[in-house]
Amino acid sequence: MSDTIAIFGVGGMGTAVLDLVIEQLAKDDSAESKLRTIAVNRPQASLDTSRAETAMFLDAPDLEGDGNVDSEKWNEVLNAHKDQVRHVVDGMEKVIVIAGLGGLTGSTVAPMVARIAKQQGAEVEALLTTPMIFEGPSRSKKADQALEEINSHADKVTTVTGNELMAMADSNVALDQAFEQIDNKLTAKVVELIS
Ligand SMILES: Nc1nc2c(ncn2[C@@H]2O[C@H](COP(=O)(O)OP(=O)(O)OP(=O)(O)O)[C@@H](O)[C@H]2O)c(=O)[nH]1
Ligand SMILES: [Mg+2]
Q: In the chain, how many domains are there?
């Protein structure tokens, strides 16, 4: 069977969950054979250990770090990757986008992928998270804007809010273990979208 579903893991959260999805589906030949997996992140080193078939590195040496990125320059970086996204989604029945909203990469690339996938005629689904309350209002606002745009393109959006994320982990565990518990639960939600 040829590829019919493309899954994009975008940004820190999206690429982490995509790796877990790939690990889980490796045991399932029929699912694996219809999937294309694409990890999109920055900086380049963040994709060194990615299990995805395609690593899309948003290259902008002067734009590294989480601080204030020149939005004009960042838009150029995004525009430079449009054709690559178009090429990957071409002919796909379904495109699934996984991203944590609130930072730069997920909040800007996820809407772009959803828009292009819809333009190319795919069914578009997304699994998104919104920031936890302590991450502050500016990340929250960025997430809301991204969510609005993704909602306007996608056929189905599953949003897990920051509060819901916190409830997914046991309250008495260390942070890395809490993220592991959360990521496993998000992975199960993506696997549901595939089957
Ligand atoms: N579940 C989960 N959430 C994460 C992980 N890493 C970051 N997050 C959360 O996901 C949201 C977005 O963060 P990232 O995915 O790191 O952001 P990004 O899209 O890479 O954005 P920039 O690094 O600013 O370019 C934030 O609310 C984080 O708290 C992870 O490994 N697992
Ligand atoms: Mg990041």
A: 1
Ligand 1 pocket member 48 (CB < 6 A): no
Q: In which domain, by residue range, is 150 found? A: 10-194
Q: Residue 30 Cα, ligand 1 centroid: separation in angstroms?
A: 30
What is d(CA 14, CA 45) in angstroms, rounded to the nearest whole number?
15
For range 164-173, the mean pLDDT = 94
List CB contacts of 110: < 8 A, sequence separation 6 or more: 8, 10, 11, 14, 97, 99, 101, 126, 128, 146, 150
Residue 178 Cα distances to 46, 128, 173, 175, 185, angstroms: 21, 18, 6, 5, 11
In a domain, 137, yes or no: yes
Summarize pLDDT for 75-96 with one digit per residue, the tens: 999 999 999 999 999 999 999 9
Ligand 2 centre distance from Cα of residue 42 (Å): 6
Instruction: Tell me, yes or no, whether 1 lies in a domain.
Output: no
Q: What is the CATH number of the domain that holds 153?
A: 3.40.50.1440
Q: Is 143's C-beta closer than 6 angstroms to any atom of ligand 1?
A: no
